[in-house]
Amino acid sequence: MTPMPVNPAGSPLKGIRGQLLTFKADPFLYNEKECYDYYTDALVVIRDGHIIEVGDYKDVAPKYPDLKDVETYTDSIIMPGFIDCHVHYVQSSMIGSFGDTLLNWLDRYAFPTEAKFRDKAFADEVAHEFMKQLLEQGTTTANVFSTTFATSVDALFEESERYDTRMITGKVLQDRNLPDSLKDESAEESILESERLLKKWHHRGRQLYAIIPRFAPTSTPRQLELAGELYQRYIDQGVYMHTHLDEMQSEIDWVTQLFPDVDNYTDVYKKYGLVDKRSVMAHCCIVREEEWQTLHECQCGVAHCPSSNLFLGDGEFRYWEAKEQSRPVRVGMGTDVGGGTNFSIPRQLGEAYKVAMLQMRSLDAVKSFYLATRGGAEALHLENTIGSIAPGYEADIAVLDLKPSEFAAWRMKYTGNIFERLFVLMTLGLNNMNKATYVAGRKVYDRSRDNKWMYAAEIDASADVKPAKEQKSR
Ligand code: GUN
Ligand code: ZN
Question: Could you tell me which CATH number the domain at 82-379 has?
């Protein structure tokens, strides 16, 4: 397939105006007030998919007399697009399936559903719906599990390419302890297939490739060894490794039985060369100190997936362990759909707060929205590219509605500052709280447009026929 040309002629200036919040450092490690920029009335100036300037409207606007295409948002907060560090798009059609334990739930629902992805038409249908869900929730980058079949990888990257989103996925490597319908036929062939897909998709437009052993129990030692070799061959080209780690006790016990010669779960992956600077580990609920040390030293990313952990009764993530000052670990949020119960990163924050409270800690809105944006970018080693609204960054932006329901609008009257409002929003967890999503500067999702979702090429085509005009408060 030839990639779709996206705006080859370059785009004119575009502006987004309104209240704005963006992070520049980790509030778990530094004084919170120094970690963000907040503007009551900001102007973001975008050209060719990148942010060229952001600041107070009154200071920035006079510098751009030619800037006519400005969208102004009221009762809203403009933020970097959310980053979902761990999600299974192939489980979208089984979200909300009754479960008892993780391992039974995988057998009963996840594996049979994923086996259907051999069929490209099914994969296309699910990828289409998945991308719509992400964009509706304001998520602009996700680190995604596909499944065994190349069809599942192609379907997601093709759909992502149509929106020009930055997505990370790859073939899932799994050659034991799962049904034949989903199992790789041989470790060697699975790695060849993964490398073929890597060469096809990595850095094609904004797409990035990940080597994905599902988790240690579903790979033979031989497959892990070959996966590690493949990862090490491509790591300097920005390829990822993505897997599950330390999600629940029964899983950890199983790993200990399968790999008796290794000290802990993290060391299983380490032994095979799979723990390195672009390794992203989902869950990390029950982690030993020596494992945190390894994750810190190797600069790994961790995806905190609270709604899934609660739904599957896994374990409780301990952010204070992850963020221990002497050896902090990079942490972002993950929905882990279909273990997670929705696609919204702000709603994950509400669950993260409760998981912390169950352990007599709490998470404020500053730390929470950092995790949802820049924290995710740091976990993916993309913090110089996405996750902040600053000059040079890719223009991936969400616009949250601060009055998404009549009740929320009334409740907001009794809040003091923006962080109190954001805390209410993440706690109420309304599904309709995102007004618009911009991807590389194009508004690919607009809650109030007839055509809510639009592909990049459709937007470019409509811009060619309609002259840009100033749009007013929404
Ligand atoms: N561990 C291995 N596979 C999975 C999965 O699909 N979901 C979750 N939550 N954990 C896993
Ligand atoms: Zn998962």
Answer: 3.20.20.140
